[in-house]
Automatic annotation (TrEMBL):
InterPro entries reported for this sequence: Aldolase_class_II_sugar_metab, Aldolase_II/adducin_N, Aldolase_II/adducin_N_sf
SMART domains, alphabetized: Aldolase_II
Keyword Repressor part of the UniProt annotation: no
Keyword DNA-binding on entry: no
Top-level taxonomic group: Bacteria
Official protein name in the record: Aldolase
One Pfam family here: Aldolase_II
SUPFAM superfamilies: AraD/HMP-PK domain-like (SSF53639)
Keywords, comma-separated and alphabetical: Lyase, Metal-binding
Domain called Class II aldolase/adducin N-terminal: residue spans: 23-208
Length: 233
C-alpha cells in the first residue's frame, strides 16, 4: 500500500522554500543597489514559490530589504503576510502565468535603459539592435511597452500579449522595456533573470555610448548563433 503524503511535512517544505526565496530576493536587491541598477525606492523583485508569490513591498528600497517584511501573496492574489505588496504585483503574477518558465521577476529603473526610451529605441518590437552575440543569446527580442502610470493594470495585458505572440512564433521573450520606467525581466531563477538584466543594460549603455551608430549583426551571423547555440532570434 502506498504511503499517503504527510500534509505537515509539505507545509514545512513550503515554509523552507519561502524562507529561501526571501533570502534570495534580499540578496538580489542588495546586489542591484550596490551596482547602481536601482536607486531610492524604485524597482521591485518577486519570486514564485509553489502557487504563491513573494514580492517586495510598495516603496521599499531594494538595497535595504527586511526579509520578514516581504509581501507573501497566495494563489488567489490575497496578501497573507508582510508589508503592502508592490503596486506591480499584478504584472509579476501575470508574467508567471503567461510564461511557465518564469519564477523570478525583476523590474528596475536602470539608467541606460530608461535613457534609451528617452533618446529613442531602435524599434518598438526590438528596443536594441542585435549588436553582440551575447545580447542575441542571453537577451533576445525586447519589445517596448508604451508609457502607462506605474502600476497601471493595462500594462499586464500588453506584456502578456507580447509573451503569447512571441511564444507562438517560437521566439520567446525574457524581457520588456517600459517607456520611461525601465526593464522588466524574468527567468526560472534569480541568476537567469539577473543575466538578462545585466546584458540588456550593458548593451543599452554600449549603444548610447557609440551614438547609436553601430550596425547590427548580419543575417548570416545571426543564423550561425541560432544554429550553433540555439539562440532565439
Amino acid at each position: 500500500m502506498s504511503k499517503l503524503p504527510d500534509p505537515a511535512a509539505a507545509d514545512v517544505d513550503l515554509a523552507d522554500d519561502v524562507d529561501a526565496a526571501r533570502a534570495e530576493i534580499v540578496r538580489v536587491g542588495t546586489s542591484l543597489f550596490a551596482r547602481g541598477y536601482v536607486h531610492a525606492s524604485a524597482g521591485n523583485i518577486s519570486a514564485k514559490v509553489g502557487d504563491s508569490h513573494l514580492i517586495t513591498p510598495t516603496d521599499a528600497a531594494l538595497g535595504f530589504l527586511d526579509p520578514d517584511r516581504l509581501a507573501l501573496v497566495d494563489a488567489g492574489g490575497e496578501q497573507i503576510a508582510g508589508d503592502r505588496a508592490s503596486k506591480t504585483l499584478t504584472l509579476h503574477r501575470r508574467i508567471c502565468a503567461a510564461d511557465p518558465t518564469a519564477r523570478f521577476v525583476i523590474h528596475t529603473h536602470s539608467t541606460h535603459l530608461v535613457a534609451l526610451t528617452l533618446a529613442g529605441v531602435w524599434s518598438k518590437d526590438d528596443v536594441l539592435p542585435p549588436l553582440t552575440p551575447y545580447y542575441v543569446m542571453k537577451v533576445g527580442h525586447v519589445p517596448l511597452i508604451p508609457y502607462h502610470r506605474p502600476g497601471d493594470p493595462r500594462v499586464a495585458d500588453l506584456v502578456t500579449g507580447h509573451i503569447a505572440d512571441r511564444a507562438a512564433g517560437r521566439t520567446p521573450i525574457r524581457a520588456v522595456l517600459l517607456d520611461r520606467l525601465g526593464p522588466v525581466v524574468w527567468g526560472p531563477d534569480a541568476a537567469s533573470a539577473l543575466a538578462v538584466l545585466e546584458e540588456l543594460e550593458e548593451t543599452a549603455r554600449l549603444w548610447l555610448l557609440t551614438d547609436r551608430r553601430p550596425e547590427p549583426l548580419t543575417s548570416p551571423a545571426l543564423d550561425e548563433l541560432k544554429a550553433v547555440f540555439g539562440a532565439s532570434w
